[in-house]
């Protein structure tokens, strides 16, 4: 069995902004192009599911850090209309959709991908999903008119850490797009070096408290000092919740199963 897991807003936004200039000639150009993509998946995948973000204010991330994703703006009105049309069109095609208050689409995708008994393919440009990569979980990353297949091996070769360590790197470097603070002054290169050397943020700060950083890393001590709390918060904000309550009747995800 092969399951396509789609980050709904990520896909819709990419198509919306890619077709924005053509909307004056055809208001439905975004929807038409996106549905052609979806229909193409039915040739390669037995199961297809779309996931949507619940309200930001209901998530545990917002409770932990109210400024989480605070820099994001609301949906443009035409994009919201496309969202409503898309959800209706997916329902007509019998494609499973899920949205759950308290969770983001990434959480639902993670819970399904790690539980599904076949191969799971996540379709999204969101790098947060990289942390889920495994022998049975892959990510198709749309990029400048192309698609890249990301698996564990490609990830390790690209980033120099294991997929599950991606949250530790992000905890140190932060993420401006999600307004995750990270440790001030620690960028991607330094964050990667530290995670390669100490495995996790928790282990790193055990070493920092013992004043036992390797000699080559002593130069980072001042930046790390006093930042354990913000680093651990950033990790919690970055970590996908794979324990979100999900539908586990896998036939419900089979393409066309919701048609009556």
UniProtKB/TrEMBL annotation:
Q: Which parts of the sequence belong to the 5'-3' exonuclease domain? A: 1-256
Q: Which UniProt keywords are listed?
A: DNA-binding, Exonuclease, Hydrolase, Nuclease
One example of the protein's molecular function in GO is:
exonuclease activity
SMART domains noted in UniProt: 53EXOc (SM00475), HhH2 (SM00279)
Q: What Gene3D superfamilies does this protein map onto?
A: 5' to 3' exonuclease, C-terminal subdomain, 5'-nuclease
Give the highest taxon in the source lineage.
Bacteria
Q: Is Nuclease among this UniProt entry's keywords?
A: yes
- What is this protein's function per UniProt? 5'-3' exonuclease acting preferentially on double-stranded DNA.
This protein is called 5'-3' exonuclease
* Protein species of origin: Exiguobacterium mexicanum
């Amino acid at each position: 069995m092969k399951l396509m897991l789609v980050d709904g807003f990520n896909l819709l936004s990419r198509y919306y902004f890619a077709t924005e200039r053509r909307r004056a000639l055809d208001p439905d150009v975004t929807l038409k192009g996106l549905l052609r993509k979806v229909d193409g998946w039915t040739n390669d995948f037995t199961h297809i599911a779309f996931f949507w973000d619940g309200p930001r204010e209901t998530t545990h991330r917002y409770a932990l850090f109210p400024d989480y994703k605070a820099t994001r703006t609301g949906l443009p009105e035409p994009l919201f209309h496309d969202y409503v049309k898309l959800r209706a069109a997916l329902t007509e095609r019998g494609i499973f959709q899920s949205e759950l208050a308290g969770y983001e689409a990434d959480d639902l995708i993670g819970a399904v991908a790690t539980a599904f008994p076949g191969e799971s393919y996540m379709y999204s440009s969101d790098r947060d999903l990289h942390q889920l990569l495994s022998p049975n979980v892959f990510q198709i990353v749309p990029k400048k008119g192309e698609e890249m297949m990301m698996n564990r091996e490609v990830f390790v070769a690209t980033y120099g850490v294991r997929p599950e360590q991606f949250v530790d790197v992000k905890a140190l470097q932060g993420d401006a797009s999600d307004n995750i603070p990270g440790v001030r002054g620690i960028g991607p290169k330094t964050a990667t070096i530290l995670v390669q050397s100490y495995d996790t943020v928790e282990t790193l700060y055990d070493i920092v408290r013992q004043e036992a950083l390797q000699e080559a890393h002593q130069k980072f001590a001042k930046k790390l000092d006093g930042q354990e709390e913000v680093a651990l918060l950033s990790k919690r904000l970055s970590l996908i919740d794979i324990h979100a309550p999900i539908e586990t009747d896998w036939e419900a995800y089979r393409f066309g199963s919701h048609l009556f």
